[in-house]
Design goal:
This protein folds into 2 domains: about 30 residues; about 80 residues, no CATH class. By secondary structure, it is an alpha+beta fold. It has 2 helices and 4 strands, in the order H-E-E-E-H-E. About 35% of the residues lie in helices and about 20% in strands. The longest helix is centred in the N-terminal third of the chain and has 27 residues. It is rod-shaped and about 90 Å long. The protein has a 4-stranded antiparallel sheet, covered by helices on one side.
């Protein structure tokens, strides 16, 4: 009877140790970076004219909003950088439908937004 009790105790202790190790590694696991994970970088881009939905019609400015006098036309937008690892002169904005709606609203209302700067 004592051997059966000792065997059960060993089995319970073994599975308890396995459970403890599983929980320890599960709770302390760090997410490994993957190549598929997209880095999100936001910047300002000046509008050079043409179609507002064409990213090639914008020039990278950087992290600060430009000083654009007036409020009738599009001056610059703040957007995610679609190619953040490119040289500054090749960076382009990610022109989303939400940003285009915000541009249209800013131009119609002649009121700048946190992502849209206007000029004369």
């Amino acid at each position: 009877m004592a051997r059966i009790f000792n065997a059960r105790l060993l089995v319970v202790a073994f599975f308890g140790a396995i459970l403890a190790l599983f929980l320890y590694f599960s709770l302390n696991a760090k997410e490994k970076p993957t190549a598929d994970k997209k880095v999100r970088v936001t910047a300002w881009f000046s509008f050079n004219g043409g179609d507002m939905d064409d990213p090639t019609n914008y020039s990278y400015i950087g992290s600060s909003a430009p000083n654009c006098p007036g409020q009738n036309n599009l001056c610059a937008v703040q957007a995610d950088v679609s190619n953040p690892n490119a040289p500054d002169n090749q960076k382009q904005p990610d022109i989303t439908s939400t940003l285009l709606d915000e541009i249209d609203e800013a131009i119609q209302s002649k009121q700048e937004t946190s992502h849209v700067s206007l000029r004369e």
